[in-house]
Design brief:
With 247 residues, the chain is mainly alpha-helical. The chain is built from ten helices and no strands. Helix 9 runs antiparallel to helix 10. The chain is elongated and about 75 Å long. It catalyses: Fe(2+)(in) = Fe(2+)(out).
Length: 247
């Protein structure tokens, strides 16, 4: 049961139909998810930190220093979290693959019955799924792949997924985190810089929320409003708390 790819053989007419038909599906879901995680936290957390420090009457240089430190630490933390999550997913897949492989060898009749049960759930009759079950039993690798996908609902992860996830989340966090800090780079007075930071960051959250809704299939305008609202509440809470404790 090696990991070799199985050659797919189709009738010429069906192959021709497939070649002529082109479906447009969005298949970069994992990358978009990582970008959303990184940018959303990157925009919100440093934004709230900068607003809080501004509320405590810190200078722009202090806000900027603390903000850069937070962005660096946050990017490392978020990237590491993404790496560990993807690594855990890959390890889980390997464990289940080995377990399913052993079961096919040890109790093939039971596994074949499970294939029949899965197909029956799709309304396929016994006389129809019988040949399918028999064909899978003759092809152990295809049988194993079928059980992983349809019994366990697991897709084989990309072996480079963990590293890619870590890098994507970290870079997205940095890009998002820099936005609320830009005004503090040019305006020495933090009280003035925070106003510009709020405007710039809320606008960025609005654009990001719209894009997130568009790519995830949700209502873009609602997503934009919700994302901006969350960022505004976070920064207002941080600013208000800093003012209250500093008073």
């Amino acid at each position: 049961m090696g990991g070799q790819e199985q050659a797919i053989s189709l009738e010429p007419e069906k192959q021709k139909l497939l070649n002529e038909h082109s479906e447009k599906h969005f298949t970069a879901g994992e990358i978009v998810r990582d970008i959303i995680i990184g940018v959303s936290d990157g925009l919100t957390v440093p934004f709230a930190l900068a607003a809080g420090l501004s509320g405590a009457n810190a200078t722009s240089s202090i806000v900027l220093t603390a903000g850069i430190a937070e962005v660096a630490a946050g990017a490392i933390s978020m990237g590491l979290g993404g790496y560990l999550a993807a690594k855990s997913e890959a390890d889980h897949y390997k464990r289940e693959l080995k377990r399913e492989q052993d079961e096919i060898i040890a109790v093939p009749d039971t596994e074949a019955a499970e294939v029949a049960e899965i197909l029956a759930q799709y309304g396929i009759e016994a006389h129809e799924y019988g040949p399918v079950v028999n064909a899978l039993r003759k092809n152990p690798q295809a049988w194993l792949d079928f059980m992983m996908k349809f019994e366990l609902g697991l897709e084989k992860p990309d072996p480079r997924r963990a590293l890619h996830s870590a890098m994507t989340i970290a870079i997205a966090y940095i890009l998002g985190g820099v936005v609320p800090l830009i005004p503090y780079m040019f305006i020495p007075n933090a009280a003035e810089a925070v106003v510009i930071s709020v405007v710039v960051t809320l606008f960025a959250l609005l654009i990001f929320g719209y894009a997130k809704g568009y790519f995830t299939g949700n209502r873009p305008f609602r997503s934009a409003f919700e994302t901006t609202l969350i960022g505004a509440i976070a920064s207002a809470a941080a600013f208000g708390l800093a003012k209250a404790f500093h008073a």
